[in-house]
Design brief:
With 122 residues, the chain is of the alpha/beta class. It is built from four helices and five strands, in the order E-H-E-H-E-H-E-H-E. It is globular. 37% of the residues are buried.
């Protein structure tokens, strides 16, 4: 197990906006604390990676959109992985996704989780 690795599994999406900012905030915070952070997007979380979608999701009325939190995480070098099965569930292709997202199979999540000190799920 690596003491410097964190995995955040993101299952929440546009239908639950109040759950969408915190995972990105925690990822950015952990990266600032020198953890190696990976976010694995599955189920509805994958929808947040669709171009233009995170700009439409607001955790708090009048607040900043999820896209701001998402960009903060990317700027902090958080790795974004999209589950190919959930992409298929939502009819998403690689061209539909924002830049800097790698598509992986579900087994990848298990492999990463085995090597992490902390695993969070949202």
């Amino acid at each position: 197990m690596a003491d410097d690795k964190v995995l955040i599994i993101m299952t929440s999406g546009p239908d639950t906006p109040r759950r969408c900012a915190t995972p990105f905030f925690f990822a950015t915070l952990a990266a600032a604390m020198d953890y190696e952070v990976t976010m694995f997007f599955t189920i509805d979380g994958t929808q947040l990676l669709k171009k233009g979608q995170a700009e439409k999701v607001f955790p708090k009325e009048g607040g900043k959109p999820v896209s701001g939190f998402l960009q903060d995480a990317l700027d902090a070098d958080v790795t974004f992985l999209a589950c190919t099965a959930s992409m298929e569930l939502h009819d998403l292709t690689a061209e539909d996704l924002i830049d800097d997202v790698k598509m992986v199979g579900g087994a990848t999540m298990w492999q990463i989780a085995e090597d992490c000190k902390t695993v969070l799920t949202f």
